[in-house]
Design a protein that fits this description.
single chain; 547 residues; alpha+beta; nine-stranded mixed β-sheet; five-stranded mixed β-sheet; 16 helices; 26% helix; 20% strand
Length: 547
């Protein structure tokens, strides 16, 4: 088998983001599954019902690399539930996770423009949730309103003034600012679930109208998320088998072992150190350039990290090329901007952090900082492998760092509430991964995720009180209001320059996303660049030596 490097744009198939409901009896599959044939773009059916296909396995098995808390899709940023939600829920529009182009999901067509700031969307006919209840415009309105109130998703949806139901199948959006070609992409963020669901139902076992239903949710390390096919699904990508099971395995070695032993047919986040082992066994390992990155986040309210020169110095001190070569086996690119250079809307920032220890020492001296000692909180996943080299590089410029490894929940537990005035958050610097490209890849969305008026800037980096934040916010608002793509790009370029110069939170590099699978047992599978696994359109096949 060859190690495969793929470009960002891949063969298209429909995908979405996460949303939820309550799993009821209608989700179970007790008889042989016989979904309707899948139509090609011209409307002709070219895939036989599963029951008529020979060699199809009953269960699609996978190992995922991230755990999650509850399954509530409102404002979720948990990678495991975002990916699971691509299979369980639908949005008005869906993002093709290979091209990031929006296609119709629950919507029968693209938005109908009523005037400059008002649009109508009509739902496709006869859509029901997996429990058989009809999906109506009121369910859509409820899902949007609740996500608009959320601390994280609210920033993504701030361009919406109101959402109302004109009738059972028609939703009217009144916007605050025109969104141009980005409108469908942003509407795709919200997944639709029954308005009647309680908070407990959303958190524990939600339902949607997608091709799969949650059967069991145990999303902690070692647990399993089990799905059954939704027999009431009316969209273009029906489930290709009766069941799907995802095992949560955080440890790279254990996750690799599960694939090598054929306990699963696909694994997320294939570690570079085990790539050759998997290739030798006959598996495919594919690398797709993506947005996934490790970032440093500073406590911008706490001296000396409130001085931008200190933040810049700690970036200039890092030999990122060596990190990529030694730890990532070359499967990443140094950050030259917030976006990688293969993303649309890319702009090379006016400040690029090449390895320059002398400049780091000079900036620290200018800031009056001598023999700085700091605490580095490190997420105990793959980025922890970077910490030893980072600490060594900082020591070379006179900075001593104590590494404190924490899981994701513990890492942000005391950084998720805005502190009382005059109270400093209890951290210096955080090293953690991030990948908002799970939601989309346009500049406004990516910038808004970490630098919008939200949890990140007010309760984590504490950058929201700065003049630079106010300037960035104004530029973002101007870009949203513009109907000229050239003008938008110019405004976003200014945003990228501010973010790179201020570095309240900033990437070290952009990582290629590695996925491994058994090609003979997973037909028509195409890995994506974002965090998560997407099996829409893929079919598990029986092996000579069955799993």
């Amino acid at each position: 088998m060859q190690l495969i490097h793929t470009p960002l744009t891949r063969r298209a198939f429909v995908a979405g983001a996460a949303v939820a409901g309550l799993a009821l009896a209608g989700c179970s599959v007790e008889e042989p599954l016989e979904p309707e044939p899948v139509a090609d773009e011209g409307g002709a059916a070219d895939v036989a019902p599963i029951a008529e296909q020979s060699g199809v396995a009953g269960t699609l098995t996978a190992a995922v690399a991230y755990e999650g808390g509850d399954a509530n899709p409102i404002g979720t940023s948990a990678g495991v539930f975002l990916a699971a939600g691509w299979h369980v829920f639908e949005g008005l529009y869906e993002l093709d996770m290979h091209t990031y182009k929006a296609v119709c999901g629950l919507a029968a067509d693209f938005p109908l423009q009523i005037d400059e700031l008002e649009y109508e969307v009509t739902l496709r006919e006869e859509t029901v949730f997996s429990n058989g209840l009809p999906l109506t415009a009121l369910d859509v309105v409820n899902a949007f309103e609740r996500n608009m109130e959320n601390d994280l998703y609210g920033a993504f949806l701030s361009f919406i003034g109101s959402v109302t139901a004109s009738d059972e199948r028609t939703i009217r959006f009144k916007l605050i600012a025109p969104m141009g070609t980005l409108l469908q992409e942003r509407l795709a963020l919200v997944r639709i679930f029954p308005a009647s669901l309680t908070e407990e139902q959303l958190a524990t076992k939600p339902i949607g109208s997608g091709p799969w239903c949650y059967e069991r949710i145990e999303a902690a390390d070692g647990g399993t998320i089990a799905f059954t096919a939704n027999r009431n699904y009316t969209g273009p990508w029906p489930a290709t088998c009766s069941r799907m099971e995802w095992t949560v395995v955080l440890d790279d070695d254990k996750r690799t072992e599960r694939l090598a032993d054929k306990k699963v047919i696909c694994m997320e986040a294939a570690p570079e150190v085990h790539a050759q082992e998997l290739l030798d066994a006959g598996a495919t390992v594919e690398y797709v350039p993506g947005f996934n990155l490790p970032f440093l986040m500073f406590n911008c309210e706490k001296p000396p990290f409130d001085d931008v020169r200190v933040r810049q110095a700690l970036h200039y001190a890092l030999d990122v090329d060596s990190l990529i070569g030694d730890v990532m086996a070359g499967h990443a690119r140094p950050a030259t901007s917030l976006l990688p250079d293969y993303f649309r809307h890319y702009h090379r920032a006016s400040t690029v952090y090449s390895y320059d220890p002398e400049k780091a020492r000079k900036l620290l001296a200018e800031a009056g900082v001598d023999e700085l000692a700091l605490t580095l909180r490190v997420n105990d996943n793959w980025v922890s492998e970077l910490s030893e080299a980072i600490v060594r590089d900082w020591e070379a410029v006179g900075v001593t760092a104590e590494v404190v490894p924490l899981d994701t929940t513990a890492l942000f537990a005391d950084l998720s509430q805005v502190p009382e005035p005059g109270t400093l958050l209890p951290f210096d610097v955080v090293l953690s991964p991030g990948d908002p490209s799970c939601f989309g890849n346009d500049a406004d969305l990516i910038i808004s995720w970490w630098y919008g008026d939200n949890l990140w800037t007010r309760a984590r980096s504490r950058w929201a009180a700065s003049d630079a934040f106010a300037e960035l916010s104004e530029l973002l608002a101007q870009a949203r209001a513009s109907t000229s793509e050239d003008e938008q790009q110019g405004l976003w370029n200014q945003c990228f320059d501010i973010i790179a110069a201020e570095v309240p939170l900033y990437p070290l590099f952009h990582r290629e996303t590695a996925t491994a699978w058994w090609p003979g047992q997973l037909d028509d599978y195409d890995p994506i660049s974002a965090t998560g696994l997407n099996f829409l359109g893929a079919t598990p096949m029986k092996d000579v030596d069955p799993i």
